[in-house]
Amino acid sequence: MAPQLMWIGLGNMGRGMCKNLVEKGNLDKPLIIYNRTKKRSEDLAAKLPKGKTEIVDSIEEGVKKADIIFTIVSNDAAVREAVSSALKGEVKGKLIVECSTIHPDTVEQVAKDVLAKGAEFVASPVFGAPPAADAGQLIFVPAGPKATIDKARPYFKGVMGKAEIPMDDKPYGTSQKLKLIGNSFILNMVSQLGEGLAMAEKTGVGVEPLKEFIDTLFGGVHSGYAQRMVSGTYWKMEEPLFSADNALKDAGHAINLAQSAGMELKNAKTAQGYLKGVAEYAGGSKGDIAGIYGIARQQAGLKYENDA
Ligand SMILES: NC(=O)c1ccc[n+]([C@@H]2O[C@H](COP(=O)([O-])OP(=O)(O)OC[C@H]3O[C@@H](n4cnc5c(N)ncnc54)[C@H](OP(=O)(O)O)[C@@H]3O)[C@@H](O)[C@H]2O)c1
């Protein structure tokens, strides 16, 4: 019999991950889903085939019935809150797989709390934007005891993900350290794209030839983010794909991690400055990371919104 799975957090990432679990996870029971705002659970359940999900009203209610509980929520405070609710009942022998991006110290503390209650824990942040989550193309970075990771592994590669960067038997915080270093690449890339596209416009080159250069030389995530800028998606979309608040959290954690290792993350500080501008102009929970382009435009004397 397959384990009973539960999912906590149906934001941009969680929704796509659940879709892939339901489609490819070989589940023999409905996936239990919980989201703080219930409407998101209802919307997801309506989109997936009938009988494939079971909505619960509280984390405690779902955890009671579940063997493996996945979490992916906004930030450190949200993870602490969700896991502490999960630990309210009897959890001995259950497994919690935490996929959010949080500070390495937070994940170590959360893991301690989980283990103290007799449950098992895997820290597995993920690389990949929401479209990659939808397409089952995420990269998982699981850390913790190998025997524990092996219980979650069947749901990573080939189900929700395309690959793993395994951290078997490594401290939980190691996976978050890699995730933060990796996200500093994303922050820098998005800042570079925003500045470059603003500069292409200001110098009379135009954004289209620069977009062509980006697509031809780099492709992949560079092209994805450049498209979000050139198409105007960064200011037109109702909900951000990667909120300014979440990106600011990542920048802050990465800068803090570098400091604690005795070095300075200068590029991330540039991205942090741009992101503060996005949060101020478009709202922290409404503005998207690609809005860095809008701020680079403003700083060059253009409007935040492009003419797309
Ligand atoms: N977006 C990306 O490109 C990306 C890529 C890789 C990793 N990540 C990481 O994955 C995590 C989720 O990102 P996302 O883009 O899916 O975020 P999101 O769209 O902003 O969704 C956040 C989720 O967290 C829930 N939440 C927030 N505070 C909560 C609390 N106190 N208790 C319970 N639930 C709470 C929200 O519930 P409500 O619906 O009620 O607000 C929502 O389900 C973050 O740690 C992010 O850094 C994001």
Polypeptide structure, described:
The chain has 308 residues and is an alpha/beta fold. The chain folds into two domains: 5-170, Rossmann fold (3-Layer(aba) Sandwich), CATH 3.40.50; 180-299, Orthogonal Bundle (N-(1-d-carboxylethyl)-l-norvaline Dehydrogenase, domain 2). The chain contains 14 helices and eleven strands. The chain has helices spanning 12-24, 38-47, 59-65, 76-86, 104-116, 130-134, 146-152, 172-202, 207-217, 220-230, 233-236, 244-260, 266-282, 292-299, and strands at 5-8, 31-34, 53-55, 68-71, 95-98, 120-123, 126-127, 138-140, 143-144, 161-164, 167-168. A six-stranded parallel sheet has the order 3-2-1-4-5-6, sandwiched between helices. β5 (95-98), α5 (104-116) and β6 form a beta-alpha-beta unit. α8 (172-202) crosses α12, α8 packs across α13 (266-282) and α13 (266-282) packs across α14 (292-299). The longest helix has 31 residues, at 172-202. The radius of gyration is 20 Å and the shape is globular. The termini are far apart. The model has no long low-confidence stretch (mean pLDDT 98). The chain binds NADP nicotinamide-adenine-dinucleotide phosphate. NADP nicotinamide-adenine-dinucleotide phosphate binds at residues 9-14, 35-37, 40, 72-74, 78, 81-82, 100-101, 126, 129-130, 241-243, 246, 250.
SSE topology:
Blueprint: E1 5-8, H1 12-24, E2 31-34, H2 38-47, E3 53-55, H3 59-65, E4 68-71, H4 76-86, E5 95-98, H5 104-116, E6 120-123, E7 126-127, H6 130-134, E8 138-140, E9 143-144, H7 146-152, E10 161-164, E11 167-168, H8 172-202, H9 207-217, H10 220-230, H11 233-236, H12 244-260, H13 266-282, H14 292-299
Parallel strand pairs: 1-2, 1-4, 2-3, 4-5, 5-6, 8-10, 9-11
Antiparallel strand pairs: 7-8
